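User: Hi! I'm working on a homework problem where we have to compare a predicted structure to a textbook description. Could you give me the structure for the chain below?
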Amino acid sequence: MSLGPTTDESGDKQTSRQADKQANSSRAFPSPPLLVSWSWITPTRLLALGIVCYIIAFTAAAWYKYATYQMGFDLGVHEQVLWNTAHGRIAATSAFADTESYLGIDIIPTELLLAPIYALAPSAYTMLFLQTLALALGAVPVFLLVRDRFGTEWAGLVFAAAFLLYLPVEYMNLYEFQIRAFATTFLLMALYALERRRFRSFLLWSLLALGCRSDVGFVVAGMGAYAILDFRSQILDFRETQSKIKNQKSKIILFSLLPIILGLGWVALCVGALIPLFRDSPFLYAQIIYGQFGDSLGAIARTLITRPVFVATYVFGGADGAMRLRYLLEMFLPFGFLLLLQPRMLLITLPIFALNLLSNTPNIHASTHYHYQALIIPFMVVGSAYSLEWLIRPTTDDRRTTNDKRRTANDGRWPLVGVLALSLACNIGFRNPFFSLLTRQVDRMRIAATERLLTQVPSDAPIATTSAIGPHASRRERIFFFPGNVIYPEAKIAQAQYLLIDQSELLQDGKTQADRLKKLADLAASRQYRRLAEEQGLSLWQRVGP
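Assistant: Happy to help. Predicted structure tokens:
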């Protein structure tokens, strides 16, 4: 009995099949005729080469983007968190409303574990390198998962390459620094441990992923649900012996029920207890991002349940609806919508898709250019691979002969070539961030002026800056965002002793230009600050009044 594409690589069955799969791995996809003599070219070596090249290229790109002042204030916030933690002020940050700790925003113990490494080389360059390294290493569990599924390393190599070519991965890599990027690889490692039924490894990687953000709890719970459905499909297969069925049932608690309890419990603990513990007043970002559905979590939930037509119209109607549809296209098209054929894997991603699609800022959350897709990526890649293997295998009989496996691998050559070609086409067609960064104009004179003005600010002085300057002034106890917004409140600016303002950046958005011009005029007329210097559209101010 079959319930669609299943995960049958588990327990004793997987152990007995693994040797046969790997024995045929090199024969399934022989090297092209011109390369037969190049015996050193193997999928594993090509994978290692690809990972190294990715690390070099994207570390250089991220460093270049940072050095040319093209990263935003969030990078400065996360560096301040690590800098303060390295100096004994655990998770301390200054720019947010009603909290002096990032733990009042979200619970991120895994990020704090990076502080000792950061302390060895305290710089945003260190953070950006670690992020690139973590993402690049995500190709390893992708390779292992797909290799085990197809029985050939070449298939693993194709999907590992597709992972590194996937635009949500690359954009996230070059979008400042976000600990969610680390969760991508941790979840891939957890999935590999789950498929191999290695409980200790699964628990370790799941805990590291949970420590990245509270919303990872939804994904870990989803993995538990995925495991339940997988166990169920195997138990319903009457070809299994009763002893094996009993063994599978004994693992349900470890790999299914525990992740569900752990994941949902983590979300409830963070939102209901830990985050409020570090805040001076109750505040939920959900009320900002999803306020269109209600003014409380209960009201939001009621709207989602009782008014489905209103919700669907909001999500997919109008210009914002078109933006969300494009987002779905950019997420699914690089893998040919194959994830839709793997409903159990798709199930894991649904809570994160819902959070992104329901947001009232689709230009940020429902966009592949930011980090909000980090928790979807592992299952998009691996689920697509599982679906492709299900489509091309000649029989649903798990006890396939060696010839069956060879025929599956041979029949899968062109589909795998198609996956790689589609990944490359989408990478280029949807605007590769690496090349778009390198072709962007850089104002070297403005950068030099910014650095000259920064040298005039004492290293321990509280400062408020515009977004792009923030990451270069964040190694201090107090830093604030000018001109302020709903996340980084304007009221905090009054604590700054210095203001360093890039007026051209400030006035980029036509919708807010008039308001920000007024803020600059009020600042010039104020007796609280005096202008110390001005050049290249930048101005440095010092507090003189109360």
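For your comparison, note the following. The chain has a mean pLDDT of 87. Strands lie at 463-465, 479-481, 498-502, 529-535, 538-543. Good luck with the assignment!
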